[in-house]
Amino acid sequence: MEWEKLLSKERFYQSGDGEEPGRSDYDTIIRSTLFRRLQDKAQVFPLESDDYVRTRLTHSLEVSAIGKRLGELVYRRLKEAGKDAWFEHNPETEFSDTLLCAGLVHDIGNPPFGHFGEYAVREWFQRYLGGKTDNYARRLYRELFS
C-alpha cells in the first residue's frame, strides 16, 4: 500500500503554524457548523432495549475514539511486522489521527432519520407522489437555496 499517498501532509489550506496536519484537521472539523449540526440529530437504534437515545454528535465522538484506538493498535502491529518502511519513518499519530477524523465526519451529510428513516421517506414519496420524487426534491432545493 502507498501510505504516503493515502496519508498526505498536503492540505488545501495550510495553517502556517507548523501544526501536524491530523491535529489541524481535527480542530477544523470540531469547529465546523456541519459537525455541530450533528448535535440536533438523533442516532436512533430501533431494536435497542433501553430508552437512551444519543445524538449523532455523541455517536460520532464514540466512533472517532474507537477509530483512533484501532489506528494505534494497527499501526503498532504493522510497524512490528516490518513489512512497510512507511511505519518506520512516520509517527503513530499521523496514522491514528486520520481514523480519529474519519470517525468524526462519518455521519455528516446523512439524512436526519438514518437509514431506516431514509427508506420510510422514500417509500412514502413513492406511494403518495407516484414516484415523482425527483421533481419534488428539485423544487424543495430551489426553495431552500434560492
TrEMBL record:
Gene Ontology MF terms: dGTPase activity
Limits of the HD domain: 56-146
Biological process according to GO: dGTP catabolic process
Listed Pfam families: HD
InterPro entries: dGTPase-like, HD/PDEase_dom, HD_domain
Top-level taxon: Bacteria
PANTHER family, A to Z: DEOXYGUANOSINETRIPHOSPHATE TRIPHOSPHOHYDROLASE, DEOXYNUCLEOSIDE TRIPHOSPHATE TRIPHOSPHOHYDROLASE
Name of the protein this chain belongs to: HD domain-containing protein
Lineage: Bacteria, Bacillati, Bacillota, Clostridia, Lachnospirales
